[in-house]
Design goal:
Helices cover 77% and strands 0% of the residues. By secondary structure, it is mainly alpha-helical. Helix 7 packs parallel to helix 11 (220-241) and helix 8 runs antiparallel to helix 11 (220-241).
Amino acid sequence: MRTLLVAIQFLTRVPITVEGVTERDVGRSAVFFPVVGALVGGALLGAYLLLALLLPPVVARMVTLLIWIMLAGAFHLDGLADTVDGLYGGKDREDALRIMKDPHVGAMGVIAIVSTLLVKAAALASLPEDVFRGAIVVTPVLGHAAMVLALALPYARPAGLGKAFAEHRSTLDVPFASVATLGAAFGLFKFAGLAALGVGLLCATVLVGMAWRKIRGVTGDVCGAVNELTETAALVSLTGLAVLPSWFWRWHL
């Protein structure tokens, strides 16, 4: 239970305080990242169902997106901006890492955040009601699990918060994340969910590959970017699949 609470404290802005957290606690908490994603998804679904009683559907969905951002404290969006700035503007490995550590956000980082939120908003607004309710639950699970997979790569910095995951992670992290992701995707959407998962992980793999070429590893910022890219790509995939005939979704929901 303590490790789960550490994961919630690390990944969200839920007012939970775990005393005496060590680097080992942080590293071990990665195994619960998909669980935190499921909790976030459940909270978003609950918030949406309440909002839908008071607001038009599209407005309720956009407010749900705002709640999604606030739950994470824009933590992953910040990582996305820093990653894009570093990979785009860094001349070499050291320069890229320096830019990613800089608290200021560059033009490319701003573009990345705005573009991601616009695409997410458009996808959420376009999904059929039944598909939307499942997507808002499963997408955070996919994004959080993708971070666990990214953390399996070497850490690019000699020190930093992400170092705790590299040095203290459990051997169960990747297997559990894989099973949780496949279970969530297939359980809610069957093969349509697996297709969305595949697209999300493919996009995340491309990003991680770019990071590997530039900085020879991953950082906490890269993991945040992986989360955002996986979530966005999965939502877009479900939006594309939503145009298929109704008989397809009768079998997949």
